């Protein structure tokens, strides 16, 4: 039996199952977009005359933003278009999403991301000899500090980045999707914000602000990526929770009206 419901206007409200599938699809799209761009296109032709064909950090940043824009408009009407455990928890903290649904959403997001990196691995297996090993030796686009940081920043930089920029991201999301003050261009605003965040922070820790993305790459990134993964689970979530509670207190409390 379907758990979808019909509204008084005759439209059908998506079922809980449909919402979870939409979150998995959206997370798959986001992760495969960023990881495939980072591993296949960012440094394309490095060390050869074809090097100028690589998209670099800027290309990766725009790939992330574009996948979020597309995913938001494609799956947002079904699930809300979170595609990120930190976003789901931040929305719950702000009173915009029921806590009882958080676990299901987070699991769907993590599964979608893991499937995406598995697909990238399968593609890599068909590539030039040694491509997959080289990608894994380089951390497989995993988040991290030290040797896993593109510019060799330390753990402190990674913590500040994940706390601060996830909080900024949540403030933008909560603002542009507000029930009464939001905008129909919310998906575009969210995607551009994520692009900006990646442009600013990829050199520091490869930019997470999304635990599902970090888990997905660490699975194939090796021991160091897995050992550092906790930072990219804990601090994006903390940043999102702080932003969610703060937004609710500052802008949605009776005193703020």
From TrEMBL:
Show the InterPro entries listed in the entry: Aquaporin-like, Aquaporin_transptr, MIP, MIP_CS
What are the alphabetically sorted keywords of the record? Membrane, Transmembrane, Transmembrane helix, Transport
Pfam families reported in the protein's UniProt record: MIP
Membrane topology reported for the UniProt record: Multi-pass membrane protein
Q: TM spans, by residue?
A: 20-42, 54-75, 106-132, 152-173, 185-204, 229-251
Query: Is the Membrane keyword given for this protein?
Result: yes
Compartments, record wording: Membrane
Top-level lineage group: Bacteria
Per the record's keyword annotation, is Transmembrane helix included, yes or no?
A: yes
Q: Which family does it belong to?
A: Belongs to the MIP/aquaporin (TC 1.A.8) family.
Any idea what this protein is called?
Answer: Aquaporin
- State the organism of origin: Microbacterium candidum
């Amino acid at each position: 039996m379907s758990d979808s419901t019909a509204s008084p206007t005759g439209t059908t409200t998506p079922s809980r199952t449909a919402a979870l599938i939409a979150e998995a699809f959206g997370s798959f799209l986001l992760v495969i977009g960023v990881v495939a761009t980072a591993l296949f296109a960012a440094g394309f032709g490095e060390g050869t005359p074809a090097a100028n064909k690589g998209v670099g950090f800027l290309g990766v940043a725009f790939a992330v933003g574009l996948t979020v824009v597309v995913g938001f408009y494609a799956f947002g009407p079904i699930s809300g278009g979170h595609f990120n455990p930190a976003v789901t928890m931040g929305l719950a903290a702000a009173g915009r999403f029921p806590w009882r649904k958080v676990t299901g959403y987070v699991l769907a997001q993590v599964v979608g991301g893991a499937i995406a990196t598995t697909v990238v691995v399968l593609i890599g297996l068909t590539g030039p000899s040694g491509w997959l090993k080289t990608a894994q030796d380089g951390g497989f686009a995993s988040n991290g500090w030290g040797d896993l940081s593109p510019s060799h920043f330390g753990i402190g930089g990674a913590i500040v980045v994940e706390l601060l920029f996830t909080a900024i991201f949540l403030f933008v999301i909560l603002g542009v999707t507000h029930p009464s003050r939001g905008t129909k261009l919310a998906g575009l605003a969210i995607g551009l914000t994520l692009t900006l965040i990646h442009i600013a922070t990829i050199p520091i820790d490869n930019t997470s602000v999304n635990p599902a993305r970090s888990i997905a790459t660490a699975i194939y990134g090796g021991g160091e990526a897995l050992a550092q993964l906790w930072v990219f689970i804990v601090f994006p979530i903390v940043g999102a929770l702080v932003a969610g509670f703060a937004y609710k207190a500052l802008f949605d409390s009776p005193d703020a009206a």
